Amino acid sequence: RIKSGETVKISYLIGIADSKSDALNLAEKYNGKAAVSRAFELAWTQSQVEARYLNLISRDIELYQMMLSHIFYISPLRREREDMIRKNAKGQSGLWQYGISGDFPIVLVTVESGDDLSIVEDAVKAHEFWRSKGLKIDMIILNEDAGNYLQEFNDRIRKVILSNRGGNVQDKPGGIFLRQASIMDEESLNLIFSVSRIVFSASNGSLRQQLKIKNFSQNRAKRDLPVFHNIYQGVPETLEELTFFNGLGGFKKDGSEYVIWLEGKVDTPAPWSNIICNEEFGCLVTSSGSGYTWAENSREFKISPWSNDAVMDPPGEILYLVDEAEGGPWSITPLPVREDEPYTIRHGFGYSIFEHVSHGIKQEMTVFVPNSGRIKIVKVRLKNISYSKRKLKACYYMRPVLGVNTQMTAPFIVSGIDDNQSLIIRNTYSDDFPGRVVVVDCSEKKRSVTGDNV
Fold it and tell me: Which CATH number fits the domain 249-399, given the four candidates 3.30.40.10, 2.70.98.40, 3.40.1050.10, 3.30.1330.10?
C-alpha cells in the first residue's frame, strides 16, 4: 500500500541464463536496492568510457539512436524513393554478386567527390557505435564517381574507413561495404536503393539534416465517429441442443458442426480452431476471429500475420462494421471489439460461421476456402431488425506479411490499386516465392482502398 504523498521505487529484472539455478543466482545477485543502484552506476560509467573511446559527444549518440528508428521500423523517408521501390524487380539474391547477404538491415551512403568524405566519416562512426551495442547492420558506401583506372577516389574513401576503425569489419556480415556504382547495372542499383532502410546522399547535407522528414505530415484529418445513442432492444437468443456440450460448445446432433457459444466476458480456455484449406491455400480460424491466411506453405508464405499467442489470440484479419450516423466500429467476431451480446461460432468441414446480433443488426460472416484455387472467400450477411433505415459500412483490415513474419518482410512490401480498384500487394525481395501477387477485392463497386506501404 502506498500512503498519500509517499513515493515507492520498484525494480523489474529481465535476464537469461543457461539453467534454472543460474537464473535464480542472477536474480539473487540483484535482489536489493544497493545492487540495482550499483548496476546503474556501472552502466553509466561504461557508457562514458565507450563515448570517449569512440570520440563521441551526446549530440552524436542522440543522432545515431535516432537513425535506428528509421532502420528497424518503416521510415517515412522511403516515400522519397517510392518510384525506385515500385520498379524494383530483383530479390535478395541480387545482392550476392556484390558480396552482400541481405540478411541484415542495410544503410546506404552515396558519395561523388572528395568534398563528400566528411559524411563517410560520420557514417562510419555511427556504424561503430551500433556495433558497440551489438547491432548488426550492413553499411554500403556507394562511390558514384566515374573515376579512372587508378580509382584514386575509391582509395581515399577506403582510407577514411580504415582511419575510423572500420577496416576490421570491411566486407564482412554486419560490416561496411565499399562499392562502385560504375560497375553495377541499373537493376542492381535500383535494388540497393530499394532495399536500404535509409539512404544518405552526400550532396543533400549532413546525416542530421537528411533525417528531417520533408513534405510529410502526421496530422492527417481525423474523423471521430459518434457514440451510439440509440439503444436497440436485444433479440433473445437460445442455443440449440448440442451433443457433448461442456458449457461453451458442443456438436450438432448430426455431427456436421462444432458450435461455440460465447456470452458476456466468457471465453474459451484456449483458441478453439478450424483449419480450412485445399492443397495449396488455406486459413486458420479460431473462436476469436478470422486468424490468418497462407499460400503454398503455412509457415514460409503467410499472407496475413499469425501471432502464436494462445492467450490473447489477436486476429490477423478483421472485418469492422460502422454506422456513421449512430456509431462504431464493432466486429462480427468476438475480437477485436467484444460486446455484451452473445456470439455463436460454427466450425464445419471446410468453413466457419460467426453469428452475432447487436445495434439492431443481425450479422453473419462465413469464411471458407474452395476445393481448388488460391483464394479465400468471406461472405457477410446483414439483416436490419431495427425500426429505422440504416446506412452501414464494412471495413476489411489486413496487415500483409508475404513471408514468415512482418518483422522480416515489412520493409519490402509494396501495395497499389489496379484498374478494378482492387488492392494489390507484392514482396519483390522474396526469392523463395518470387512474383507472387496478393489481391484483396470485394463484390461492392462503391468502395475505397488504402495501404500504408509505398
Answer: 2.70.98.40
